[in-house]
Amino acid sequence: FLAERMQDEILQEQILIETEGERIGQINALSVIEFPGHPRAFGEPSRISCVVHIGDGEFTDIERKAELGGNIHAKGMM
């Protein structure tokens, strides 16, 4: 039901996805959605954007600072 509803919203242009051209700091993505009890996973389109600025040469893991990243993510960023 959820996958079909998402597809209907895209076809009815309630969700607009720009698929042509280029934008600095933006990419289109496909998020895989899984729900317990739902028979299958489905993809949901999304837009990922970023902002970059000159820093001190160090990477900052904002998920770790905000305590959103788990142990495996934090170790991978070290």
Automatic annotation (TrEMBL):
UniProt entry keywords in alphabetical sequence: Hydrolase, Protease
Q: Which GO terms of the molecular function aspect are on file?
A: peptidase activity
Q: Which top-rank group of organisms is this from? A: Bacteria
> Is Hydrolase there in the keyword field?
yes
InterPro entries cross-referenced by the UniProt entry: Ribsml_uS5_D2-typ_fold_subgr
GO BP annotation list = proteolysis
**The keyword Zinc is annotated on this UniProt entry:** no
What is the protein's given name? Lon protease family protein
